[in-house]
Amino acid sequence: MEGPAQSFVRFQGSVNVSSEFYGASRGAGRRPDNEQRAVITSTLSLSDYVSIPFELYRTSRQATFQQPFNQFGASPTFFGWLTLHGGYFSTRLSDLTFGDTRLLGGGVDLRPGSFRISFLYGRMRAPLNPDTANSFFGTYERKALGFKVGYGKEDATFVDVNVVRVFDDSSSISFSPVPLPAVENLVASLAFGFPIAGDVVRVKGEAAVSAFTNDLRAQEKSVNIGPLKSLFTARHSSQFDGAATLGMMIRPSSTFQLGLNGKWIGPGYTSLGYAQLQNDVFETNVSPAFSFAERKVSVRASVGLRFNNLRNNRFATTNRVMTSISTTVQPSSSFGVDLQYANHSMNSKPKNDTLKIDNTLNSFSISPRYIFEGLGGNNTAILSYYFQQFSDNNVLAAAFSKSQTNTITGIWTLMLPSTLSFTTTATHVSSKLASTSTITSLNETVGQSFFDGKLSLSGGGTYSRISAFSKDKQFAGRLNASYSLDQAGMFTLSISTNAYNFGAAAGQPNFTESQAVLQYGLSF
Q: What is the pTM of this model?
């Protein structure tokens, strides 16, 4: 019987430690010769009221990026409605304010009842001193401050107010050979959602405004931004704009749904809380999904339109039309087929024809599959065909960018009662650009488990013939072994080799590279 202490205090998590070794026959190779990694994630729970998760990332190869590889963070949860963040952590406020940036700092999320209150503060980017030998002029430390106040259930009726301020610290680096502009960004939004006619229709949206200063050295100017004036100083290098999203999901039955979505982001809208938020864009999308024949046939489709030049301040407007449809037919448990089609087109027509963008990407795939018994075991056979065509009507680039690719892949897997398995894969790719290139590959993988599944061994090889500018050959071999220690974890060893032989026309020396990875994982 489990004692009181065991039921009150629970400690769960995982440990993953690996060591990688790499060698190449010529040059420095494409990877470090030796690298070690460690990832530890765990959660300490006290009854059902306190949960304290934390993460630790370590690597022997520390590189200088916006955030280091070696990181530690903890996000304990208390009573199911209070979460604290410390160290490195990730959180999200809304679609238009803050969501994909990892911070070094602290934060809090409160969810008492129908209320939501969040606060975050931390470093988004570490300061980097200039390296003139590599033409790098340095970057300032960048910090973020944000909060959310909301009420309601996010799967029902809710309203949230989000505010985020991001700013550079111009004193964070000692010097720079060229003047570096420090920036400041303030974003505020109102997010909302509500149902109509019960759960048949759901509406969700967000309206946001942003203020962005391109250079904090610019002179201040008088701009009325209401209650946000205490968080942002308007300057002659500042820009102001807005953004909005609106979506509607209609589900009249369990076999049909229709999504309607729209997004408008002004050309001057900037939110540094998202690393790659595209502005100057208007986008609409219609996405129906339905099934019939007792759910043996299901269809999903999407039709979208996107264009820019919202304020007519570009040389031309770029229009994009995105269409896709996927169908799955499963008449029986042993046979099924997947079909997919997509068409993406883009065009803009400036007065100068050489700058015209007018292209179309078409793709189609069909993948039938069949499961049957035979040859002493269970068999799975999959045949896949994929076609892609890119056409360009630009007067200069059309002759060099048009392409067509055909890919055929066959996969057969045989699983015997003894746990011995065979997987055979054959692939042929034919691609036509300025010239025609082909890749033909044959792969075989054999695997088996021993000692009631504790030990698993697999190995295989791939032989490829590549015909492009020369007739090349490639052989890749691999061996994998894993041994389970039950509650004490699992050891995994992977060894691979790659030998590439260039054809006589390539004029390059052949090379061979090998890699070994020893890994230990434990879940507790």
A: 0.78
